[in-house]
Amino acid sequence: MTTDDDRTPKPKPLAPVLVMAERCHGPCGRQRPPAELVSLGTGGAKICWDCWAWHEKALQMLAGAMPPGCQNCLKSMETLRREANAVFPDGEPRMYVHPLEGIYAVLCWVCSDQVVRATNLYRDTQYGWDQKLK
Ligand SMILES: [Zn+2]
Ligand SMILES: [Zn+2]
Q1: How far, in Å, are 42, 49, 60, 86, 104 from residue 46 at the CA level?
Q2: How far is ligand 2, taken at its centre, from the CA of residue 122, in Å?
């Protein structure tokens, strides 16, 4: 005698997909599968596709192009422009290009401040002293 249970195929035990994650050395710092990482030069540093795409946008921005937004908070230029209206007299958003880990990152003024505080990148500079990073 068969029951419904016997006829329906038993679900296979869920096999976990094992991925040896590597940390992205770019600004996002997330763990990524190796297939999503790009090697930077010969130093062994690897960054993910996202960070690489932003690096290219930063280069375009340095060449005069409009950035699409902030890499960290992911706000669009439209949103940032709205917020800048309340913060800056001229209403123009401040976008910063940060050299991080050998690549460039595009950050809005808020995230730029956070990154400066979160890293010790500028610790030994006058700017670091001014911002009391010591
Ligand atoms: Zn990344
Ligand atoms: Zn931001």
Answers
A1: 10, 10, 21, 38, 14
A2: 19
